[in-house]
Design a protein that fits this description.
Layout (H helix, E strand, L loop, with lengths): L7 E4 L2 E4 H23 L5 H26 L12 H18 L4 H23 L2
Antiparallel strand pairs: 1-2
Length: 130
């Protein structure tokens, strides 16, 4: 049996993991897909970065809170522990609130993120194996 060693890049006291890199690439890919769709429709591509920013904040907070809900309050300060369901719920909520604040119809935002979400999720899942 072979042992899998995670990808970890150490910069002084700071560690960058393969999962973190792939999660970042996933968010960037999702934003790129949304940006291309907005440009194809001759609409303001700045909304793509607004969506990604909301998804990053809401997704990471939601994923960690879901993990804490499963494992107790001590898990809040652990290095690991992000749960996809919480990330999806928190990210979706943040993106919907962002669209509402910007007065963008819900279905229009949903149509923009629908192709981006599975692509970003696939890249993030690859990070789970790194």
């Amino acid at each position: 049996m072979t042992t899998a060693y995670p990808l970890v890049i150490k910069l002084g006291g700071f560690e960058i993991t393969g999962f973190g890199i792939m999660m970042m690439i996933g968010f960037l890919m999702g934003g790129w897909i949304i940006d291309r769709d907005l440009r194809r429709r001759s609409l303001n591509p700045d909304y793509a970065s607004d969506i990604v920013f909301a998804a990053v904040i809401g997704g990471i907070v939601g994923a960690k809170l879901w993990y804490v809900g499963l494992h107790g309050p001590d898990a809040l300060f652990s290095r690991g522990g992000l749960v996809w369901y919480g990330g999806f719920a928190g990210g979706a909520l943040a993106v919907v609130i962002n669209g509402w604040l910007k007065k963008v119809p819900f279905w229009w935002t949903a149509q923009l993120v629908a192709p981006a979400l599975p692509a970003a999720y696939a890249l993030g899942r690859i990070g789970c194996f790194m």
